[in-house]
């Protein structure tokens, strides 16, 4: 008889080993008292120049973003780093050289960074870090002194002059986009220009640079800010006319630019389809039918193979309202001796990883910090931070979600009279909507919608039917004890939807702030409760309005900034706008974000339903949050898609893989979570002790320990649970209290 497969044997062996670990635990803990505890491996380190201000945007945008993503990040000065010498590799788990903050670097510092990597360190080297010497000159070698570390040459001013920095789309395969935390729809299929078009014209775009602006960020600032304000919609692929109008240069490609795109294509072929998958074996995915009215769940074990061919498709990073976006980056030359993540069709390597000595370097040839702090475009920064912490350093992180359960905010914008009754009322009365949610439902309450006196608004103060919808939706007044889901009510703009949305600017607060107050007052007169959520009509949210909202106690708002990212605190023009008010970017689907735009852009129900289902899978697999918004008439016209979206959510919820969240819930949890203090130390036997506290409460705060780095954790103090269902992480969730302690043996 052939030997039969006995899975229980495997289980027994595993649990015995586990038992052994548990039995020796007291011994290991006892040893801890006397042993010298090694430094934490659960924090990244940001290298900043001596004397750098930690509150300058160039530094703070990194510390803020890391905190928002649940990643511990310390700063270290050049002097302190140099003083570590050869001990740096054993002391610092992952080192980041930021863009914009560290353009100048001494030869000694460059050498020390290389020594760190060579000795086993993990480095994320960002854009213009070290582009100039400590005296502010280009390196005499004619290229960045980090070129040999990265493996391609860049910052080649003597050689390339006006073509040092290129501008154009950034391209990667879909699986990599997902791995970089870019949700489906934050990229569009990449269409290569026809070969003859490429050869016939000099169609490459360049950013003028010099040693006072070696990465071109000062030059690009006005253009990037215009894009942030939605002014220039033509910045996707620049036409020659736009390029010359913006004083960008239009020139021949650099002939020997790194062929990163073809290298990426051959990487995909070499590994074969599933062997190259970046998916996990517990990742979920589903396929919808052509009409978008039904879906079929893929078994998680089959997800990597089912998605293999679409994961290999080439995509360009895109933005809401724009479609394909261009970014600027150093032209690289030479063949990259590593794994290409993102590439430029014209200018070479945009991001990639490479082994160097005993360590590894992740080169990100984009000014990530600049794009978040100045350009309100933070998805790439958050994505690369996540990737570096999770996949390169393999460190423990906090999940951004309560209990680590990913989910979506379903944000309803009820703009006018028809929208509330009959549309919203009728949608919420549908069978499939019963007890689903909670959703974030925002109302524009004034009598007019476009022009004064048009009478198209809901006129909430004088509209009993609309008042009834508000009360029922938020379970206020006579509905306080009624059964059914309690949704979160929010304010949508300034009383007259379009008039405010199209005319409020940074300089006319005196005219338009009273309209914001009118809208809040009208709603709060009905709910008798202060509102905690807001969405700006047409996405137009001037700084004065945002500041007023925070003072008024609003904790969560929708935003068209940072599209593709999870909840964040917004930056504008190099300053963080709020302390406690969290902004949730809309999830874009290419140029579109909601049903009316899908109609406008010819997106079928089957396609939009597939995107919504993919978005659910994305937040579930990545244990993160994103926001989808719609209007009642748009939803009414695509009810089959809405039904699929809501019913699949319920199915995923039933197995603990998804939750709906309101903006206020995400904001409250995020604000409490970032106040968590935690640290870890490891004794000589490899036992790591994690200690955490929170001034308010640790309830639902969740640590994700990489299985590749730790054996099963055990809670040794406070109240918490350990989940073993994730294929790549152990999840430790605090149940209550303000402190917790747990231990895990390093592998
Ligand atoms: Zn609206």
How many separate helices? 26
- List how many beta strands DSSP finds: 33
Determine the N-to-C terminus distance: 38 Å
Structural category is alpha/beta
Overall spatial form: globular
Largest sheet: 8 strands, parallel
Radius of gyration: 26 Å
Mean pLDDT: 91
Portion of residues within helices = 25-40%
Taking pLDDT < 50 over at least 5 consecutive residues as the criterion, the unreliable ranges are 1-23, 32-37, 233-240
Strand content: 15-25%
Spell out which ligands are present: zinc ion
Task: Describe it.
With 747 residues, the protein is an alpha/beta fold. The strands form seven sheets. Strands 19, 20, 21, 22, 23, 26, 27 and 28 form an eight-stranded parallel β-sheet that branches. α23 packs parallel to α25. The longest helix has 28 residues, at 7-34. The protein is globular, with a radius of gyration of 26 Å. Mean pLDDT is 91; it is low at 1-23, 32-37 and 233-240. It binds zinc ion. Residues 413, 415, 492, 497, 537 line the site of zinc ion.
């Amino acid at each position: 008889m052939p030997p039969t497969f006995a899975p229980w044997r495997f289980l027994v062996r595993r649990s015995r080993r586990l038992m052994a670990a548990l039995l020796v635990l007291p011994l290991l803990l006892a040893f801890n008292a006397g042993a010298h505890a090694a430094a934490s491996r659960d924090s990244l380190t940001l290298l900043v120049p001596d004397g750098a201000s930690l509150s300058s945007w160039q530094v703070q945008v990194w510390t803020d973003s890391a905190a928002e993503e649940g990643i511990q990040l310390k700063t270290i000065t050049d002097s302190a780093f140099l003083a570590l010498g050869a001990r740096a590799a054993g002391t610092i788990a992952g080192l980041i050289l930021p863009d914009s903050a560290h353009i100048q670097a001494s030869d000694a510092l460059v050498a020390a960074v290389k020594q760190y990597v060579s000795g086993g360190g993990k480095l994320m080297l960002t854009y213009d870090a070290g582009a100039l010497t400590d005296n502010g000159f280009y390196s005499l070698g004619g290229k960045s002194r980090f070129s040999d570390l990265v493996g391609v040459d860049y910052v080649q001013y003597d050689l390339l002059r006006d073509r040092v920095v290129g501008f154009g789309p950034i391209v990667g395969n879909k699986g990599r986009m997902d791995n970089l935390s870019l949700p489906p729809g934050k990229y569009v299929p990449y269409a290569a220009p026809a070969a003859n078009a490429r050869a016939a014209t000099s169609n490459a775009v360049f950013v003028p640079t010099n040693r006072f602006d070696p990465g071109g960020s000062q030059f690009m600032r006005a253009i990037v800010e215009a894009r942030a304000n939605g002014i220039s919609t033509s910045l996707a692929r620049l036409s020659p006319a736009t390029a010359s109008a913006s004083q960008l240069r239009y020139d021949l490609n650099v002939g020997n630019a790194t062929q990163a795109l073809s290298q990426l294509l051959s990487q995909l072929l070499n590994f074969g389809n599933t062997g190259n998958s970046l998916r996990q074996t517990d990742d979920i995915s589903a396929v919808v039918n052509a009409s978008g009215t039904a879906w079929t769940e893929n078994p998680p074990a089959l997800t990597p193979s089912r998605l293999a061919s679409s994961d290999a498709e080439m995509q360009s990073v895109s933005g809401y309202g724009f479609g394909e976006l261009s970014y600027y980056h150093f032209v690289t030359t030479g063949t990259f001796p590593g794994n290409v993540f993102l590439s430029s069709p014209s200018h070479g390597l945009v991001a990639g990883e490479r082994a160097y000595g005993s360590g590894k370097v992740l080169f990100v040839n984009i000014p990530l910090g600049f794009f978040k702090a100045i350009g309100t475009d933070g998805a790439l920064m958050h994505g690369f931070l996540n990737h570096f912490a999770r996949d390169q350093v393999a460190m423990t992180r906090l999940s951004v979600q309560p209990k680590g359960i990913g989910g979506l905010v379903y944000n309803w914008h009820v703009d006018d009279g028809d929208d509330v009754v009959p549309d919203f009322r009728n949608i919420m009365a549908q069978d499939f909507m019963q007890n689903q949610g909670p959703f974030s439902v925002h109302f524009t309450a004034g009598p007019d919608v476009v022009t004064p006196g048009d009478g198209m608004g809901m006129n909430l103060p004088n509209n009993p039917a609309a008042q009834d919808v508000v009360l029922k939706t938020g379970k206020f007044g006579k509905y306080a004890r009624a059964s059914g889901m309690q949704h979160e009510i929010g304010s949508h703009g300034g009383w007259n939807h379009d008039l405010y949305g199209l005319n409020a600017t940074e300089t006319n607060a005196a005219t338009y702030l009273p309209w914001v107050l009118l809208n809040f007052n009208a709603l709060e007169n009905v709910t008798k409760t202060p509102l905690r959520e807001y969405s700006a009509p047409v996405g137009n949210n001037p700084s004065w309005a945002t500041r007023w909202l925070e003072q008024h106690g609003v904790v969560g708002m929708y935003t068209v900034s940072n599209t593709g990212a999870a909840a964040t605190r917004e930056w504008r023009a190099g300053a963080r706008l709020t302390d406690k008010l969290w902004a949730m970017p809309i999830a874009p689907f290419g140029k579109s974000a909601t049903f009316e735009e899908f109609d406008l852009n010819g997106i079928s129900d089957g396609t939009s339903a597939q995107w919504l289902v993919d978005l659910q899978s994305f937040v579930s697999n990545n244990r993160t949050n994103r926001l989808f918004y719609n209007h009642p008439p748009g939803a009414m016209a695509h009810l089959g898609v809405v039904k699929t979206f809501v019913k699949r959510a319920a199915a995923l919820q039933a197995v603990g893989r998804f939750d709906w969240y309101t903006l206020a819930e995400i904001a409250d949890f995020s604000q409490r979570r970032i106040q968590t203090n935690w640290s870890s130390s490891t004794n000589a036997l490899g036992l790591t002790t994690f200690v955490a506290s929170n001034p308010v409460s640790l309830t639902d705060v969740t640590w994700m320990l990489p299985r590749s780095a730790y054996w099963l954790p055990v809670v040794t103090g406070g109240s918490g649970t350990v989940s073993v269902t994730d294929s790549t992480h152990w999840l430790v969730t605090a149940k209550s209290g303000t402190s917790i302690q747990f231990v895990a043996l390093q592998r």
